């Protein structure tokens, strides 16, 4: 009876028999596609997030399994985006774990011709020293400021981050603090 | 989106804010008119009900034409204009209009190249910032400080709008020459197209209907960008479209938190909540600062409570009444310490250290060469990003290294590249383009050395404080006394973003969170890191993190996230009701006065004092919000009115007037003064300008050029050119030209072309398309060249940086550069390589500049220099 069984799996037959005359629904399914499950089904947890690109502020759902992001999708609950994302928002995961993402501090000494390794803690120490030195060498007492240090960036960062930047720079007398709003 | 007509100008919303554009599409489905006015036919134009093509940079001529159309045909919303705007106010009789002085308003100082606004004042009132003093009402980006008017009697008014010097009549005279024919000849659009737009706007405004404008950097990035937006304000106020559902002027901003980084500014000239920084030559103590910056009426009258609460948030117990709440700890700024100023200082070796976090100036800033040369003059540079962007690699990978102008062996800059965290690796909030603070929760831990900016700046501050802790130096007191304690968690000791937003939101003396900015005090008993954000963290709840689905609430969705101020979704919404407090119409009701309950109510949070009746009239000596009448909705302005004419706060005139872009192939059809006299021009040799208009040498750069973005890439490309999917979708830099221009210059679709200005030359693939329309201006056909600006030398897709072609002439109010209208030349073929590139750019420029020397033009307002 094998040939009959094979015949009964013939898609053309199935699409009429199973009420899918256009062959676009279940008739087109194979054993494999029937058993496929969205990877979000296996997520350990889902974080509610916001797209990091433009200022429309579409909401995202970030699916996580074993400490890794498995998928980022639009969040239907948002009154702004109602679940939609544009190509950039939809590629957020690809940005997050793309092949060119850097994970290590890199250091280039003056007149150096290549990058060198440096530990994060040493880098932090060195940057703190550079700031202290530059400030001390060029302090404008009357205006309580130093013009030898500047900070750029903010529009891609969180409000809380912008706040710490402005607060720290003001405390250090760094006034040249700017971001993309000027650009 | 409740608009009946939406005018999109200076924006390609469909491609750059695609998900926001769904609301425009829905409005269109409901029958709304959607109009796109732009130099380029884009997907936004394709989806619009009407497209009007104009020459890049001529928007003020177009908008001024609409103002004239409204005034000539009696189409303004009379009751709204009389009650809610400053149309009836009489202006100082010494005021002289640009129309009567060949393009210069009264108060121009040709030596300083600056205006004094003394003569732009309301009759009988004094200017607060008198001549010679630094600009005070300076705005930053969008939004910003409203009105600083001086104390005094209420202004003289003429309710009939007939007085020759009332704002209404001044406006009428000022825009008289902006006829449909003038618009057509200047912008290069047809008279019919212009009239269609003007008529549709008028038809769709009034009691029953409202129209909205949407713009983006196509308006801001000009030497008169602020005035372009002002021109739309004038139209919207005349038509009664501000503060009403479906009305307004929407800024479509490009970065996730560019609004937030203006509210809590990483900007030189303001403190959180648009409080002014201290200037070098004023305000020696807190009292003077408060006096100088406080407005007599409106919410700016409470400025003392905002600044004292901010100082308490920063210096805590060290800030006491006796020491002026540490006010003296604030560093002072000069008139201009903005980004391009800093870059020019850097180029001259005056800046030693630079921290760049999430920005890529080597590609994203105007005149890339100036930016990269400036980086080579630093002692040290810290770049924090997800990938190794061009700014981090400038010392071995840049056009200057290619030409041999720079080499790693000669560059003394020490570079630290610090890998950053993505949004899914940290908690925090972004403020979107509608002022909505939306929280994103951390999903995963950052790997290896990747850290958030919150981590970086917090631990950097900690290290610096630790190293300085024994210091007795006076300069170290502000940093040692700074309140710098945030709880941390996890192995990497990530500071708590929630603790930071709670500090931003504010507390009383007992540490209890404050619900609203009205509760802030000037006596040191409250602290608040940003007064406009006060209340975002209240009742033990982080309201930015509210995620109640839209289907469980009404369309204002007040329980999704939190909008500043006080969760108001539509600013100045008192204007959605008539002077008596009744909705203008059933169809357009939003907020109204409930006579029974004696308070304002409606579907949005009223942006007005809840219990102030519509017929409230203040006493003569009333101050602050009490000085605002019950029928004046613009509560941030000192006089509660919408300003058609701006007496304070602008550097380049009280009303928008037409100027040519800094570089354009044409003369100003209105005035001998060709370009904005108050525009800022750079002072460095590395930033030469193309000859313009009919100057000899201008024919070396005969075409109009404009830059723009694509859906698949984001600004300078750091987040997209390094991302495989997006690089595959938009794999190459290109230049858009019209078929006629392609024929004229021998350009072939898909082949290479070289685009050149006095600054640089880049190459791009040619895209021949009639989306890029030639314009007929002044009887002359001129071609426009369009360039996306995302590319650079690194990432998965590489290409020439359009910003290398740009110059550093800036808007005088906000110091933003002109990227949207300049001149260039285009030639077939790839650009010369190596040293030959510099040679190619220089020889063409020398030819042009030598020619100009034979007959340089001098404008009344300023002598242009190269
Ligand atoms: S998904 Fe697209 S439209 Fe939405 S915020 Fe992100 S970049 Fe903007």
Quick overview:
The complex is a heterodimer of chains A (183) and B (866). Chain A is of the alpha+beta class and 183 residues long. Chain A has helices at residues 2-8, 11-17, 31-35, 87-90, 92-96, 120-137, 159-172; strands at 45-50, 59-65, 68-74, 106-108, 116-117, 146-152, 174-178.
Describe this structure in words.
The complex is a heterodimer of chains A (183) and B (866). Chain A has 183 residues and is an alpha+beta fold. Chain A has helices spanning 2-8, 11-17, 31-35, 87-90, 92-96, 120-137, 159-172; strands spanning 45-50, 59-65, 68-74, 106-108, 116-117, 146-152, 174-178. Helices cover 33% and strands 20% of the residues of chain A. Chain B has a domain at 698-853: Barwin-like endoglucanases. Helices cover 24% and strands 14% of the residues of chain B. In chain B, the strands form 12 sheets. In chain B, strands 27-29-28-33-26-32 form a 6-stranded mixed sheet. In chain B, a hairpin with a 4-residue loop joins β15 (428-431) and β16 (436-440). In chain B, α4 packs parallel to α10 (225-238) and α14 crosses α16. The interface between A and B is large, with 115 and 162 residues. The complex binds iron/sulfur cluster. Iron/sulfur cluster sits between chains A (51, 53-54, 56-58, 81, 85-86, 88-89) and B (17-19). Iron/sulfur cluster (SF4) sits between chains A (51, 53-54, 56-58, 81, 85-86, 88-89) and B (17-19).
